[in-house]
Amino acid sequence: MHTRLSARFPALLLSALLSTAAQAQTAWPERPITIIVPGAPGGTTDIPTRLVAQKLGALLGQPVIVDNRPGSGGIIGTQALLRAPGDGYTLLVGNTGSHAINYSAYRHLPYRPQDFVPITDMISFPNVLVVNAQSPIRTVADLTGQLRNQPGQLAYSSAGIGQTTHLTAELFRMRTGTEVIHVPYKGSTPATTALLAGETTFMFDNLTQALPHIRAGKLRALAVTSAERLPALPEVPTMAQAGVGDFVVMGWLGVFAAARTPPAVVAKLQDGLARVMRDPEIVARFKEMGGLAGGQPQSAFATLVSSEQKRWGDAIKASNLSLD
């Protein structure tokens, strides 16, 4: 009997270990989850994330904490995710800048696409070209005229080097043949604040960030970067209607985990997040912000991220832009 028990012991041990691992994944989450936002509090990435975090926490039965790590075009926050254990308890809200643009804009980026697993998209939105409401600039043609009359003297603000608010303005500069100074900030909130304070002349702001200021009469919208006019701003033309063609730019936010995260945990996260994105309150709040709620299947979101990496990579190579 002793011999038979000895022979069976390795198999019993392996079975016990597998059972324990399965129970651990099934029980996930057993403690609070942290979502890293690579932007400033109150900004374009922060506000939607906090709404989603509250709903996700209620759904999973554990607190979901938002941790702001702004700076360096999303690199600081992204690195924070990769330093954390790959157990699904630390997530990242990536965006067009951190997970599409940066791969081509930086020659020495400290992370690679294969370091992450895209879980699902959270919200998508166009940018809106805005000026201070006290500015004499009332149309895109007015802005272009001023830039041409004062080459290299006027400035635009952005949410950071390599963010869509930066590269969309660079695209505008190239399309209009103008010269302008770029002033990057650590997030969309300080960038918008700078425009409100008159420190810069214009900004291609995320619609979710700019809309409250437009409605309050503090910012003037000149054009939107979507293919069609927006229900939230029906009187504002598209860039094409304003005279600048080939100018459709949509930003997005999505949830990422470290690549080593257990597949069962990733699947549970995707399911939970997709349910949150279908919540009528989230759909309505995102619509009020000028955005569209996400919740795509993991494979569809991964395809989107990959296509965005190529799209922005081609644009960056064509403009010979390097952010190192």
Automatic annotation (TrEMBL):
Family annotation (InterPro entries): BUG, Bug_dom1
Signal peptide (from-to): 1-24
Key words, A-Z: Signal
Recorded family membership: Belongs to the UPF0065 (bug) family.
Protein name, entry field: Tripartite tricarboxylate transporter substrate binding protein
Organism name: Cupriavidus basilensis
